[in-house]
């Protein structure tokens, strides 16, 4: 099936362009409705200026495309097409090996899915049958879709437009999957005790329960240099050498057969776009657009099956490779990574040969960035509370060290920043990999984007090297090939298979269970370890030891749940396509979920770190040092949610030391807790022999987890958000941003191999001063010199946030950084909005 955007009438008269500009902007928003997304993107009276190159270079028209995306990202479309194709394929292959079934399903989707080229696009490849849409992946789970289908248009955040036709089609398709999904298998394997902890809010593993793995950085270089034809040839050769006299030969044969099936599907996918572009070129009214379409056709005839030879071919090949990951699987965090490194040889050669100019290359990057915003995924209502704002995780990373050990920033890195400055939508996120050799000029250029796009986020490359070494990665690899995956997690590009988002772990719930001797005060049930009656504890050391035992017990149950899900993925969700993009799989004849990858690691995200650290400091201060309370009274007051004790609550909040204020005792408490979590989780291995690692980021899980935890000793009220990532508690910062960064730098970041995340909210008026951005660049460098790993900024004042919450119509395109991603303020639930408002706003350096 082919859906073609109607070609528009063209004129070279600049006068007409200017005359129609305002009317076009008005009509464009009206025309891109759900009803006609497939048929007509531009209104009939649209008049375009010569080429797409010229069009995207004009601020008025560029803003119009941005407005269209922003409007439709507020309520994207849920589609049923993929669900229909994969259901039909699975029904046809019911008795075949699972890896063959996955391969044939992807082949069918690529050969039959709706394709289109939007009028402003320079690159081919779409995720769904209409732009800005999310497919359904029924193989992951269907029960929540049945239960929630009528709520997706009205739920508090992450709303989707769902037509009655799509609802009807899904209700016809989904019953076949009941009892056959990843979630069905996973829930059957998870031990009952672990299920109890999940339901109580101790941990959450929604991502891996219903989704593909995601969280990897494909070896894009392999495709750019070899092409999928070469991979198919290699798989065919290896298949022909198998004797099929051993059981493992059959496993290898099934893997290589799956590779060949997938490569055939990719060949069809690219060829379909080549034909579509040729057809559009024949009806184009403008010679320049005709040439652009013919270039798309010629490019798709070559890549991604053959090696790329030009910058345009390389970018198109990379995009095909990337978008197919999301067509195949709904895993979060398929990372673009250090693609400036991947593309630089092609960029330099195309410039030298005159194939492209610098400005044209930037326009292609802008088109690439727009396409990233067509990739969305559906989270169930529970997961949407932890991942609010449509996070997908496709970050581009600029900087780092090259093979020669020198800073790798170059002109293409600057072009990416220039493209982001013009586009600045949700996706892709931008990460700056700061090194000692990075120029101040490049860092300032990156910082200049922060006030408007809330990007980029900044990483200390040298701490990342130490993380790799902690994970057992060889020194040479750690030195020149570090990258982050998804949000802030670490993995070797093209070599690691990381379950980086295996589970969120609620530290504050563990503290609550400790205070109540393993009883959940929300239900009265004994779900935790009986660690002792805290009213009999005589020292802080006793309490700390009891808390550590509780965490250790709950982590063991969490690991049991993760291992069960990994077994479910291994059995039901092999990922042969992703395996083509991870080194080791082709050589070993095994897919990534059967041990084919070179490196494995599994990450657990600890949530509420500062809430717990501040609570321990409050107990130390008011119970064991001042003796103003005993533990029995404290627990009673917490049960009452401080009712009748507001004066005491405020006293505790303001007088007990808190992390984030450069207070050595509070910071040491946080650092000790941080290190304990890292050490405790590292005791375990995943099913492939990879290490378990710790991370400290929460997306919006600290809001959802907070709803499962009563009042805490730091003065936090019941069911309110926990602290965010490894940031200070909301409202706890009293000494300004330099104190926050000094506190953060005292944490042993290198031990958190799965990454750490620091959110800082700056007052926009401060950065409007002449020296503001220069000071911010200097601050980032100083933080990294002290040993910090990551920092990202929101630049907005509390008054604006509150006004946007109360008067959304005044802020239609109000973007905000939530965690390791940027989204529209209006996509967030009020609870998440309130939490962002509550984060400390910092002004003074």
From TrEMBL:
It comes from the Bacteria. Residues 60-717 form the PFL domain. One of its GO terms (molecular function) is lyase activity. Keywords: Lyase, Organic radical. The keyword Lyase applies. Coiled coil: none annotated. One of its GO terms (cellular component) is cytosol. PROSITE patterns: GLY_RADICAL_2, PFL. Residues 724-845 form the Glycine radical domain. This is Formate C-acetyltransferase/glycerol dehydratase family glycyl radical enzyme.
